[in-house]
Amino acid sequence: MEHYLINGGKTLEGEVVIAGAKNAALGILAAAVMTDDECIIENVPFVSDTRTLLKAIENIGASVRLLDRHTVSICGKGIVGDESLSVDDEYIRRIRASYYLIGALLGKYKYANVALPGGCDIGSRPIDLHIKGFETLGASVDIVNGGKIVARAKSLNGAHIYLDTVSVGATINIMMAAVLAEGKTTIENAAKEPHIVDVANFLNSMGANIKGAGTDVIRIRGVERLHGTEYTIIPDQIEAGTFMALAVATRGNILIKNVIPKHLESISSKLMEMGAKVIEYDDSVRVMADGKLKATHIKTLPYPGFPTDMQAQIAAALALAEGTSVVTESIFENRFRYVSELIKMGAKIKVEGNTAIITGVSGFHGAKVAASDLRAGAALVIAALAAEGESTIEDIKYIKRGYEDFDEKIRAIGGDMSYIPDKENGDQNNNKSDNK
To answer: Given its phi and psi angles, is residue 174 left (phi above 0), alpha (psi -120 to 50 degrees) or beta?
Structure first.
């Protein structure tokens, strides 16, 4: 089984360059099929989720060309938009973002047939809000045998849509369908994450008329068609936050480049509460921690609150802080599955419902652990790099879903981390450093 082998206990120092935002890229790549013109998208992260989605897009007839490792050309002209159109293969069911193709195809063709999504098992992520939005726009939506969603409409018409809970996925999906609907659509209680704004900006660059992205009310005036564009994806807020937590946990000094510091404010403030020093520049941040860490309390919230996707990583750092920290997870119910693995490394954490009570320890020791999801895997890497001795991290397929060249970037800042391929099945990894 492929895995990471880490010898920890080293102070990490140096520079790391952050890739494009995975969560923005998945929405943008799906939206690119909504025109018959060519879209050129830059700063696409080279991770398994984006590659899987590109393969699915190609399989339904779109032209997909990799112009370089981080630049892709997509032209949706070859897609046949009748009821023979179906997005379903063994790969697309593995990623959550497959559902973005529902909104994109429904908006363009008034028909979509897409396999129900997979992804990380971090709790219930129902798509009822997506369905509610599509139906309010005039579509009929059915879940058919085999776990597929079929949405169809004679026409889509603008409407007022109130989301009962804040949902990033539903906001993006409804936004995509609405840009080609007739009339005006208002989405209230919309998600405000940076990747919502990035997808909206991409659609606007294609000729859409979206206003208010980044606020809780998004207003969309439908247009007849979209055109091709060239666009650059924003940096990945969560990858940046992961390296920030890594700097703190290893008492390091890391300059994290190609970031938007404002997107990191909730993370920066908590790390500073822990005793770290965070220096912001125009497009980079430096994170340093050379003394004892202090406990703090964290509650995950929709943006601009503390991101759920950073909860596990900062918990790994808090487990090395003096005192007792309380981490409350308000988004997903299964986000503490990594705790049992951290305990194997010496952490003292007790989970009560949606709260983790963390009593700081003086250090971790190496252990054999397994990732339960993408961000849990990142947290285990942080812990292993801070630990004394050797650690093995298995089930790294989750980590590869969202971190580009993770082992290579960590080696460049002084970490002793190696990728060990699966001897039976050969090297199946998705990152260029995996062949080293």
So the answer is: alpha
CA distance 210 to 192: 14
Pick from 80-84, 126-130, 159-163, 261-265: least confident: 126-130
Contact residues for 2 (Cβ-Cβ < 8 A; gap 6+): 396, 397, 419, 420, 421, 422, 427, 428, 429
Q: Active site residue: 120, 168, 180, 316, which one?
A: 120
3-state secondary structure 52-72: HHHHHHHHCCCEEEEEECCEE
Q: For 147-159, how does the pLDDT look when each residue is reduced to its tens digit (9 = 90+)? A: 789 999 999 999 9
Q: Is 120 a catalytic residue?
A: yes
Helix or strand (DSSP H, E) at 24: helix 22-31
The CA dihedral of 424, 6, 265, 121, to the nearest 10 degrees, is 40
CB atoms within 10 A of CB 285: 25
Calpha distance 179→227 (Å, rounded): 12
pLDDT digits (tens, 9 = 90+) for 17-71: 999 999 999 999 999 999 999 999 999 999 999 999 999 999 999 999 999 999 9
Which contiguous run of DSSP H or E holds residue 324?
Answer: strand 324-328
Q: Which of 123, 152, 148, 118 is nearest to 135 (CA)?
A: 152
Spatial contact of 324 and 360, defined as CB atoms under 8 Å apart:
yes
Joined together, the tokens standing for residue 78 give 């070859």
